[in-house]
Amino acid sequence: MKQGDLVVRKSYGGDVLFRVAAFAAEQAVLRGTDYRLLADAPIEDLQTVRNPDMLGGTRQARIMANESFRRISEERNRQAGRVGYMGFLDDRRQPFFEMPGKVLHLDGDANYLKKSLQVYSQLKVPAEGIYCHESQMAHMLMRMLPQYRPDIVVITGHDGVLKQREDLDQLSSYKNSLNFVHAVNVAREYERSRDSLVVVAGACQSHFEALLHAGANFASSPGRIMIHALDPVYVAVRAAFTPFRDTINITDVIAHTISGRQGVGGIETMGRYRIGVPNTKVANSETNVNVL
Q1: Which residue has the higher pLDDT, 272 or 290?
Q2: For residues 99 and 160, what is the distance between their CA atoms, to the nearest angstrom?
């Protein structure tokens, strides 16, 4: 067994697929491949997986991720109909231009960051992604917020409740919640208004209440459960495409996540989407036709 191998924990019945991140003595540090969970386990408890698609839990997580993406895409098409154009994929046919909220996404997992940026790209959300360890996110935000000036910040990676820590009210019981709290504090020092800068923070089993208290608009995990890797992305996308005069529908947003209300929660927040006129692509096209 080596770093990077896909494994499951035998003592847990192989319920979650992990990638080996590091070794420490007879223990392995594990990062979930479908869920944002950070764990450790004795090496002897691990079983290497050669065909992850054969695992029922992995198949189900990916099916749910595809379904969630489909529902988000359908919501975008419904929104397109409400504002009066024929589909959001062809912006050359609409008389106005769109300004979705701009996302800055910090992720403690390079693979998840890549998947997240693919979703943003498919849905035409302007996004900048940065891979860094959870402990470095606060420092990274100090540099990147003034440079990128986002409308939405996603602060995520891996987290989990430490073994033999039963006091879930204490940040010391969590693997990375304190790092996320520090990062949220930096975001709120940069912009205090929760409507001007929407903050989405947390990972699996994160300290939900502490993240909200620090200034997050949306956070995980109210029920201290595992959240899917793309749940923070879906929340950010809805914030990006909710009109700035409307409140983001919290109940509906949570319904579109894979983890549900035990995995993600939040507070009333205004959207970050605007439209403008004219659409210069249409205007230039019409000008060319007139010249010819």
Answers
A1: 272
A2: 36
